[in-house]
Specification:
Layout: H1 15-18, H2 22-25, H3 30-40, E1 45-49, E2 62-66, H4 70-73, E3 100-104, H5 113-123, E4 128-133, H6 143-146, H7 148-157, H8 161-168, E5 172-176, E6 179-180, H9 201-205, H10 215-231, H11 233-238, E7 246-247, E8 251-256
Parallel strand pairs: 1-2, 1-3, 3-4
Antiparallel strand pairs: 4-8, 5-8, 6-7
């Protein structure tokens, strides 16, 4: 398919290469999932767009999953539905098919954000929500000092939060989601108080931004963090984070409620 990687990945990152052991590091955190569950309300049929390996898919509802990457589809647990090979910008469903829709850690991969959001609205007759990171506050993390190249990549890739909210329509809430200290979903900020975790190449690989960082810059990050942990420099500066139960970082849930299907809007504005 035009514009897709060999394994079907439709975004800028090739999950056929970086997603092989994704689920070893990216397990849904129940405290984050609770925010999604509350926002879903009494929705029974749910579409998961960019579903990946199934993180944050509710087990107690009828879920349809869409995921273009074969590598990610292959890692879905056996108790989850088989994901459909499709992209956000061209969802193969009729208008208003689903009570609700979710998109978690995926909108930064969509090639045409406007088209993807319009499709999300079109096929959903109830709440729609996006779990993502706010690029405007990524500087809150200690990684901004240790891995500026990676943070710059993240800031470029994550869409503006207000733009996403506008794309979901009126009555949309932007909810700040605290990141638990022992968060089981290993996105970069999840290790805010456990810096040693990011010395693991697998933990870095499970965050697609690292695949855009030059090898020498990544090596410099590892060398500096290793040295500063051994010498106590990191703890002198950021050690209080090891005792902080949650971190107010960039994680946001954008929740729109009771959307009216708008029909196909590909190529049009919000």
């Amino acid at each position: 398919m035009s514009g897709r990687h060999e394994d079907g990945s439709a975004g800028d990152a090739n999950y056929g290469v970086i997603g092989t052991h994704y689920t070893a590091y990216r397990q849904p955190d129940p405290r984050i999932a609770a925010y999604i569950e509350r926002a879903l309300g009494d929705a029974r049929t749910v579409l998961n767009i960019g579903a990946g390996a199934g993180s944050y898919e509710p087990r107690d509802r009828s879920v349809t999953a869409v995921e273009p990457s074969a590598a990610m589809r292959a890692q879905r647990p056996a108790d989850l539905p088989v994901a459909i090979d499709a992209v956000a910008e061209a969802l193969p469903f009729a208008d208003g098919t689903f009570d609700a829709s979710i998109a978690t850690f995926t909108v930064h991969q969509w090639r045409d954000l406007r088209a993807g959001l319009a499709e999300m609205r079109r096929v959903t007759c109830g709440p729609a929500m996006i779990l993502t990171c706010d690029p405007a506050v990524l500087h809150r993390s200690w990684l901004a000092a240790y891995a500026p190249d990676m943070i710059a990549v993240e800031a470029r890739r994550y869409p503006n939060i207000d733009m996403l909210a506008a794309g979901l329509g009126p009555n949309t809430q932007i909810i700040s989601v605290p990141i638990p200290f022992d968060c089981t979903d290993g996105f970069s900020e999840a290790y805010y108080g456990r810096p040693e975790m990011l010395l693991d190449p697998g933990a870095r690989r499970a965050n697609s931004a690292w695949s855009f960082v030059a090898p020498d810059a990544e090596a410099a990050f590892v060398a500096r963090l290793t040295c500063d942990l051994e010498d106590g420099v990191w703890d002198a500066r950021y050690g209080a984070l090891r005792h902080q139960s949650a971190f107010d970082g960039s994680l946001r849930l954008i929740a729109g409620s009771h959307l009216a299907p708008v029909g196909r809007m590909v190529g049009k504005g919000f």
